[in-house]
Amino acid sequence: MLSGSCACGAVAFEADASPAPIAFCNCRTCRKVSGTAFGANMSVPRNSFRWLRGEDRLISYESSPGKVRRFCGTCGSAMTAERLGNPDAAVRIRLGTLNTPICNPTFVGHIWRSEAADWFNPKQIVAEWPEAATA
Ligand SMILES: [Zn+2]
Ligand SMILES: [Zn+2]
């Protein structure tokens, strides 16, 4: 079981699915809607996914024909993306919303590097800090 919620807590979901490989999408739209270098996404089967609360608080953005991205209308958290019109299509969960652990993650890798931000190189090793940088 995977479950998640937005930053303010108004919206929550769960998916009765096993963890799937994680994709880091560097496409222009994922960068824009996340406000950062890439979106971390996991696809789950449509019929495994349900909103637990706050479905009426969601706002949607059709980023390309038939592809709908959903956000909390209060805090703006990016929640899901899916292609409408195909009941067998997957729901892509924005993994920053997840509250359940993924013990042994597997990865698709970085996708859409052709549209990536020029300031982010996944091969470059940068400093890590347990909290805010102190230097
Ligand atoms: Zn929210
Ligand atoms: Zn993308």
Structure description:
With 135 residues, the protein is mainly beta. It has one domain: Metal Binding Protein, Guanine Nucleotide Exchange Factor, Chain A, CATH 2.170.150.70. It contains 1 helix and 10 strands, in the order βββαβββββββ. It has one helix spanning 28-34, and strands at 2-5, 12-15, 22-25, 39-45, 49-53, 58-64, 67-72, 78-83, 90-94, 107-111. Strand 1 and strand 2 form a beta hairpin. The longest helix is centred in the first third of the chain and has 7 residues, at 28-34. It is globular and about 45 Å long. The termini are far apart. Bound molecules: zinc ion (2 copies). One zinc ion (ZN) binds next to helix 1. Residues 25, 27, 29-30, 39, 112 line the site of one zinc ion.
Could you spell the SSE succession in H and E letters? EEEHEEEEEEE
Protein structure class: mainly beta
Task: Give the mean pLDDT.
Answer: 96
Shape: globular
Count of discrete structural domains: 1
Distance between the amino and carboxyl termini: 40 Å
Helical percentage: under 10%
Main sheet characteristics: 7 strands, mixed
- CATH structural architecture: Beta Complex
Compounds present? zinc ion
